[in-house]
Design brief:
alpha+beta; Alpha-Beta Plaits; 4 helices; globular; L-rhamnose mutarotase; EC 5.1.3.32; Dimeric_a/b-barrel; isomerase; L-rhamnose mutarotase activity
Amino acid sequence: MDTEQVPPTETFTFTTLLRAGREQDYERFHRAIPAELDAAMRAAGVLGWQIRRQGTTLTHEVTARSRARMNLILEGDEVNRAWQHEVAPFLDSSRPAPAPDADAGALIWDFSWPTR
């Protein structure tokens, strides 16, 4: 009998909104994230992250060791803050993002994809 414990993980979803007309620009920009951001996310306990797009709604599905720990680490990480600054022009924060939907749309990014 295997007694090795698997560390706990959390999987959660959330949505963000794109500015209308920026969908294709965002997909091209986000196709590969910087290697430094990938390393920061892994250090924060991210195990998986997918982004799907339906219209201007982005649905993020994240698997992490701990959501709270991930958020705490990434909020203080300079590489992540720089990335958030770079991605901000594509996002629409003027209206509330909807709740995640079962039809999240096409996969446009996966954490397992190559970095740049």
